[in-house]
């Protein structure tokens, strides 16, 4: 799984090297999913005011409207800065959503469905057939647990109300 994840990032980084706004956006989205374990709705709901790139944190609204602060990995922070520079190109469109972090080529907030499509394309390109957007959240949690992270800390990061929900991820980690 780690090899496939690395191959996906390498492919996305190669596309983003030229500074294309949508390629940088796609890389930033996958980096956020992987480094922060966000839910799809949390990612698409991000606004510029939710980003604190100086402290490497995001404010996300999870299930039930609960807000939490989520740490942003160093690599994801670097990619986000590159994307935000390129985002201006998309935000200049007439009628653009100035608040949304992730924009489509017309300057509108990305929908959950368009994010699912772009993640599926990225995963399919590296043989991730059958993997879904949620797979990146699962990979995030499993990699943390494999590295010895505390289950309660992973629960907090994922925004789970119940520890039993988080324990689902321990089965995969224990098997490994």
Helix/strand layout:
Elements: H1 2-16, H2 21-36, H3 40-44, E1 51-52, E2 57-61, E3 67-71, H4 74-91, H5 112-124, H6 133-146, H7 151-158, H8 163-175
Antiparallel strand pairs: 1-2, 2-3
Helix pairs in contact: 1-2, 2-4, 2-6, 6-8, 7-8
Description:
By secondary structure, the protein is mainly α. Helices cover 58% and strands 7% of the residues. It has a three-stranded antiparallel beta sheet with strand order 1-2-3. Helix 2 (21-36) packs across helix 6 (133-146). The longest helix is centred in the middle third of the chain and has 18 residues, at 74-91. The model has no long low-confidence stretch (mean pLDDT 82).
Task: Name the features.
mainly alpha; 3-stranded antiparallel beta sheet; 3 strands
Gist of the model:
The protein is mainly alpha-helical and 176 residues long. It has helices at 2-16, 21-36, 40-44, 74-91, 112-124, 133-146, 151-158, 163-175, and strands spanning 51-52, 57-61, 67-71.
